[in-house]
Amino acid sequence: MRPALSGETGVSTRAQTAIDRLASLAAPLASRLPAFPGSALLAASLNLAFGNEPPEALEPLFGSTVALRVTDLGVRFEFAVTRRGFVACRRAGAPAVTISAGLSDFLQLARRRVDPDTLFFGRRLVIEGDTELGLLLKNRLDALDLSALASAPPRPGQVMAALAGALRRFP
pTM higher than 0.70, yes or no? Predict the structure, then answer.
């Protein structure tokens, strides 16, 4: 018997309930934690995902700061896009673009279980600031071929190099 699905996202009702419960339990703690370690892990993950992509693909984003806000956890991660990759940022003013969604929606996006446009037009994914940059990043992420990462996960040295790159100072 197939589990019941929630809305257009393809998430089982049981999984959605578990994610919502996790978010409600984690939110009071998560919102009090420093964001920088999460920003560094996010930037490192992006460096790994974009590893084989030509840097020119993101050229319009170079020098821009992007924030990802997980609304139901009350956390925000910031990173900058540079010629050498993604770099974690501490809060230093207004980002060029902020992309906001709930934990479940970000997880479904990461797993490619839901189309970002569906969430955007359903007002569950919000892009604020320079929407053109936000859409460019969204489209580049959507176009990534993540099958190489799935079939050959990065070695520890690659993960450490990506993390080191994410911790570079943003000029």
Answer: yes
